[in-house]
Amino acid sequence: MQKSKVRSEQFKAHRRQLLRMGAAGLPMVLTLRASASGALISQLRCTFTIPNSTKILVDDTGQAWVGTSKLGISGNKPQNKNISKFKNHAQYVFPAGTVPSSYRADACPPDPCYDGVSNNLNDANVDSMFAHLTDSEGDYQATEGFSGAGGGKKGGSHSHNNDDHIQCDNHGHQVDEHGHSIGSNTGKYADCGYKAYNVSNNQIAPGDYVNNGSWSLPGDEDGLYLSLSINYADSYGNTGGWPGISCIVSILNYLNL
Amino acid sequence: MVNFAPVSSYSSQELAAALKAGSLEVALGPFTARAKGEGKPLRSFLQDTYRDVMVRLSLSDVTDIALDVRAPSLLRKYIRPQVIPDPGFQVPAVPLPKSMSGLAFEMGLNLVVALKCCRFVTFHAGVVANDKGAILMSAESGGGKSTLVAALMEEGYRLYSDEFALLNMPDARLASYPRPVSLKNESIEIVRDFAGGDWVSPVISDTPKGKIAYRRARPEDITEAGETAVTKLVLFPRFEAGVRASARGLRRAEAIMRLIPSSTNYHLLGEQGFNALRKMLDGAEAFEITYGTTDDSMKMVRDLAAKVGL
Amino acid sequence: MAAGPYSADTLWVAHAAHLIVEPHEDVSVVFHKLSGDTHILNFLSAAIVELLEEQPGTFAEVTGRVLTYLELDADDCPPSLVESTMLQLDDTGLIAPQNLAGSA
Lengths: 257, 310, 104
Description:
The complex is a heterotrimer of chains A (257), B (310) and C (104). Chain B is α+β, with helices and mostly antiparallel strands and 310 residues long. Chain B has helices at 12-21, 40-49, 75-78, 101-116, 145-153, 186-195, 219-223, 252-262, 266-282, 294-307; strands at residues 5-6, 24-28, 31-37, 54-56, 65-70, 82-86, 96-97, 120-130, 133-138, 158-161, 164-168, 174-175, 181-184, 204-207, 210-215, 228-229, 231-239, 246-250, 285-291.
C-alpha cells in the first residue's frame, strides 16, 4: 500500500465511487479460493441435447409422461384430443409426486361426476403414503354399487385400477382412460388437469446449475427436465437410455463426493 | 532392474498381460504411474495415443500413481460392460462404456494429478515452451485451450501439458508433463487439418462431452519431458463465436486473482505455493485474449509471444 | 458479520508476522499464513490492516486514522463503512480483537 501522494482528481473520484459501492454493500475484501474445480469442472462440463420432438406432460399430482408423440402444445396447454395417446405412447412415466409443484397443472374443478373426490392424488396424499392409501381404499369401497352420475357422492372412475375406463361425459366433463379428469376441458386445449412442456432439442449443461455443491435448478423447461433426470438417475442410475443420463450421473457422483 | 522402452516396442500380448496384472509402469515427465485394466480398448488406446511414451512391463519401483481402469460392478463387467477410473480414492467419475476405456484412463490420471499431487502447484492450464520460456494458458473447458496448445505445437513449441501447469515450488519453473492433448468436437477436425491425421487418435463418440480425440505428443516432447521452463506469458483465452479478436493486458494482482481459483491444490500448499506463484509472475506478462477463430488467436499469441521475447 | 463478539470499545489488531502483503497500485494481495488463504484487499481494507499492524484501535479510532491516511472526508467514507469493512476483515482472520491476539 503506497502512502497517498498527490492524487489526481480522477483517482480520487474513482476511490469515492468504490467507497459508495462499499457503503452499498460491495465487499471490500475478496478471498481467493483454490479448488479442484478446474479438474472437476471438466466432469461437470458435460452437455447434452434432448432429442427432437420430446415433450413432457405433467398432471396436477406431479405425475409425468415423457415422449415424442404429438401433443399440440399452446402456452403449456396440451390439446385435449392428444393427451391419451401421448400417455399411452410415452417412453418414460414418472409416478405422482415426482414433478415439483411449480410445474404441475391446476386440478380441474370438481363437478357432479367428481363431486368431492378425485382420482388424482392431491399434495397431501403425496406427502403421506398412508393417507393416500387410506383415502384411495375408502374411495374404492364407496364407489361400489355406484350406478350413475349425479346421484352419488363418489364418481365412477375413482378406482386406481386403470381398467376402469368410465367416460363421464354426460355432464360435459371428460375423464381420460386413466381416470384423470379432463374436467371442463371441452375446448381445444386443456385448461386444467395437465400442463405440457416442449423440451425438443434443448441443449442443457447441467453443471451450470450446480452451486456450492448442490443443485440450483432453473424454473424453466430445462429445470423440469433436470428434475426428472435426477429422479431417473436415483432409480436407474446410468442405464436405460434416458437422454443425458451419463452426464447427470457424473454430476451426481461429483455432488456425492 | 527392467529398462523402460516405448509402448510401440512391445507386442499387444505383452501389453495386455502387463495391464491385466497391473504391472505396466508408465513414466512421463515428473510422474510414474502403474496402470491396470483389461480389454482391447485400453490396450489399443495406449498403443495409439501413448505409442512413444516409455513404459516397462514389470514394476520395479514405487510409482506416484496407481490407476485401475475397472468395471464399476460385477454386473457391468459382463453385461453392457462399463469402466471407471479407480486411482485408489473416490473420484467423481462417470461410468463409461468399456469402449471408452482410454477416456477413463485419461480422466483418472487427471484426477490424481489434480487432487493428490503436492509436489507442484497445479493449475488447470495448458503449457507449451521453447528454449526461451513458456506460455501458460488458463481457461475453462470450451475456452479453446487445447486447440491453442495443439496449434502452438505446430509453431515449434514443445508440448508441456494440455491439462495441468505444474509449477515447481522451489524455483517457480514449469515442469513438463506431455500427455496427449484432449480435443473435443469441432476442434478435432481443426487440429487434424494442421497436425495431420497420423497425429490425431481415432474419435471416441457419444462421450459425456461429445466427440473426443487426442493429439498425440511427439517423441521430442516426451524425451525432453525432464526439462523445465520459466513462464514468460500467461494467457486467459476465451473463445466466443464470431467475436473480433482482442487482447487485454492484466495487472499482476488480477493475474493472481485468476490463477488461484484455477489451481487444484493451492489451498493445500500454504506459503510455499503463494511464493512460487508470485515468483512465477515476476518474469511474466499476463493477457486475457478473446477470439472467434483459431487463426485470430494464433495471430494474437504470436504477437504477444514476440513482445515477451519468446 | 463478525467472527465473534465485539463492541464499540473493542480494540482491533493485525499481526504483520502472520501476513505476506504484496501491494499493487490500488489493491493488495495478502497471504494469511495462519489460514493459508489469499485475499485481495482494496485500498480501504488494505489501509485498515496496515494501520492496525502499526497500532491497535477501536472502530472510531480506526475511522479517524483511515480518513487522515487516505485523505478522505467522512462524507466519502462514513464510519459505518469502516466498521463493516473491519468486520469483513475479522471474518477472514486478517484482524481480530486484541484479547484474541494470537489468532490474527
